[in-house]
Design a protein that fits this description.
mainly alpha
Amino acid sequence: MSNEVSKESQPDSILEEMAQPFSRRNFFGIMGAGTALMVTAAACRKYNPGEGGGHHTGNGGVNLGSGDIGILNYAYALEQLEAAFYTQVIATPYSRISSTELYYLKDVRDHEIAHREFFKAALGSMAIQKLEVNFSSINFKDRTSVLGTAKAFEDLGVSAYNGAGKLISNADYLTIAGKIVSVEARHAALIRDLIMPGSFADMTVVDSNGLDGARTPDEVLSIAGAYIKTKLDASNLPTS
């Protein structure tokens, strides 16, 4: 069977698969075809320091890269953080977690792992390294601590994708980012309702125009940096 997938069908088929119950087998099965559009663009380009991510810069930070590759690495870094967090949540469930909450949080974990692996496969040799995280400030045995952190991560992720959208040049990348941020927003709504029923879209995240907030990469990484031990260099990311 051919691994070629038409450009028109790729983005929808990728995210439709990601919306299904996750398994490593079916996820990696779609990676060969589903990331063809992004992998081809990256792999065919000559590596250029400052353009592709992954190498260390003079200040010791891991360079995310520039242009669309830089933005994809930026998203990859955030998905690594979220996937690591939810993996720990499920590995060490908080005290008296209900079966329903565990079920929901497993789904969120699987989505975040799928997002992480998607960006990793799509970026190929231009992907940044696996990041070291620091969750020492989180009490994984305490429901309030875990859900409060989950809420902060999900709200941050939504604002990050919203802020990065205007920085993406390739329309296909923008389409994929738009579909991923909608999943992140579903997560944010779920976590908020687990904390306080009915708070899924309160005025702390949705403004008077009915819009979610947006943050720049610098703003996002400044906040996420409290949980990412690996130093990142975002100085080559586009700003407009």
